Amino acid sequence: MTVSLRPKTLTPGPSPTRTPARPGEGKLPALRQAVAALALAGWVLLAGCGREEPEGGAGAEPQGPVVVYSSVDDVFARPVAQRFQEETGIEVRLVPDTEETKSTGLLNRLIAEKERPQADVFWSGDPVRAAVLKRRGLSASYRSPAATGLPPRFSDPEGHWTGFSARARVLIYNREKVPEEQAPDSIFDLVEPRFRGQACIANPLFGTTSMHAAALFAALGEQRARQLFEDFTANGGRIVSSNGEVRRRVANGECTVGITDTDDANVARLEGKPVGIVFPDADGIGTLIIPNAAVLIAGAPHPEAGRRFIDFLLAPETEKALAASEAAQMPVRPGLPPPAGLPALAGLKAMEVDYGGLAALLEELSRGFLKEWVDRNSG
Amino acid sequence: MNPLALERPSRWRAFGVAGVFALALLPSFPLLREAASGQRGLGTFPATLWQSFGLATASAALGFAAGLPLGVTAALYSFPGRRALLALASLPLLVPSLLWAVGWSALLARVAPGPLPGAAACVVVFATTAIPLVLLTAWASTAALGAGQVEAARLAGGEAVLVRSACRHAAVPALLAAGLAGVLVLSDPAPGQIFGQRTAAAEILVSFAALFDFGLAARQGLALAALVLVLAAPLAAVAAPRLAAAVLPRAIRPLRPVWHREMAALAAGGLLVFVGIGVAAPLAGLALPALRGTALARAGSEVVETLGNTAIYGLGAGALAAVLGLLLAALAGRSSRLRTAVLALSFLLLALPSALPSLGLLRWSGEVPAALAPVFHSRFTVCVALGLRFLPVATLLALRGWASTSPTWAWAAELHGVSLGRYLARVLAPRLAPAVATGLVLVGLLSAADVGTVLLLHPPGQRSLPLAIFTVMANAPEALVASLCLLYVVGAGALLAALPWLAGRRL
Known about the structure:
heterodimer; A: alpha/beta; D-Maltodextrin-Binding Protein, domain 2; 10 strands; B: mainly alpha; MetI-like fold; 80% helix
């Protein structure tokens, strides 16, 4: 026997006798709840509109607030912003981003806001993003008096971005799975048979890994760099979503070696994970150093406050504070103490890189080889 | 104007529907314009889109196969802890898929280290969202049956026949929900990125975030939306008449779930298995580090700092979507063609990448007169963008709510000389209130969980909680991230528990 619960077959058309529910009966509490919720939401919508006062004219004492877009990890950027606020009384409105691969990212916001910028300062975690802003005409030149002592090789010659505290691209390995004597000391070790199927890197289309890829193409030449990437996958190397993921996988032994940034490696160290850190290629092309970059946005709504914030970022005290924090950023200014457990920048062999030039190379690689390589080796 | 105006067919209805959808698409216009004026070509995107389509189909099929019987049996049979289990099963809808993917990844790394098969892992995460969506739809559809119908089916063939018949009844709305889940899969980049699986949404993200090519991203988004439209139109055509039919069973004696030992055990067991695998397992992956750390206090202060904005974004978006959804339902009225069009366009709207309207709004903010710019840079705009993004969810609920009203009420009101205002206030509003309130809460929760739109549009210093989690995820201590995630899930669970109250206990 076939039974159907379709209302068409079981229930005839509506008739007054079969409609016991008189419209509205017993529904007033629900109505009140809905009206109350809508009224609350309406109030919330109105409360959401705000208007902000523009800064005084040129040369005036900065009133603030200063709007800072930051691609530096929020846990590291926020304490610096708070200290600036305490010292100057200028309110910092921080808009955080991440180098992760899961969002459209703040740089796109800056590009989309080009006609009427909202940010005063872009605190970039790497100079390539800063160089992209310069290429697109979004940055203004500012030579901060606080930049005294900062090595010029880490800054834009025209003053569109100024480099300070740096991270480095390091090899990490799981100390429980890789004996000390077999620890890698070069990025070329990742393609060695002893690490077959055990190495991982973050997606080279994003973040500092993309910058590292571009730097390798610049340092090694196209042919050798391509070969390195091909050998990596031929050796069973894996692409994961982020540098943090590389750290996590190496720390728990899912991968035994990987490439990440010093701040990620330091977090693993602070958490007591069995992770060893190596600054690679001391005898070869050197380690890629990634300074932070402070950028004043062209047409910024609060330029004076923005300049004050950049001055604060570039001061030796900020470099010291970032070195002492969990970020373990290495001061680029000579003579300042390095982070605990990490060497001073002067003691490292740094990869020779034209940071400004990497932006154009990276855009080209992202459309070409890197995109194709990632497509071929994922999913 | 009298109450009958709400029921009469008219050309202005189609114009009205077109107007609301034009409004919803307006924020995307600057980027769509760029897509049309820039270079042509999609690169390797079609192949990736096809691959993503496979993932979406698999996830939707899994959602349909598991969600339909779970929802139907949960509606037909009572068992201890039924409401709690249903609330727990709904949690995956309200938490960003990113967190479930991270949870699974962390858990699998602990219990079974080794390379994860990306496609399989993605399907598991996506199905975690698809199953509750289908489950809740099937449950609501079955719960709308009349007690008399259910008793007749039971008398005719016993429990097996009843469940089979109820499944047949709930199949179309459940299919619609599975389709909706499939669309959400197509536009969600996070799990693919985490598990190293190529997806269309991730490719669009690359165009935005690695290439800074808004035109290419917009073209890819349009290609994705076109595919969704082609697939959604037949589904919408099948589902639209059923939305109208929903009025009849609701006007008779309502169904009460009954105790039946074997069937209750099956229903409860099924829900328990899903909650165990789909919710508890990834949650364990997220939460394990929290047990070892002492970051709850720090996480608590983050929650306190961001809670106000999270609520504003959620409530504002929910209110806007609820009002516009109701307007769309009223405009579609009793016309099957218009309902089909509304459903298909809703799918299309949901399929567009969220970055398109967000970046479009930022472009608008640079082009409008200076006096209007602060509005574009306020929390109001975040609410508008989120409300329009999740408008399809509120629209579906409003369509169903509208279908539960009878045209004879308007005739009766007209006959007795009742004014339109009085008819709206005393007759329609109470009847539609549960659907509107449910839409508001659901859109509110989905908006509160959003990361992409809030990241691009939030005014400086006005973060939401999910955004805070997202931005500390990479480098904060595991214990802090886990504590934040746990607090978020607990908060979402508490709001879910409040849902029956807001919906007048009709769900």
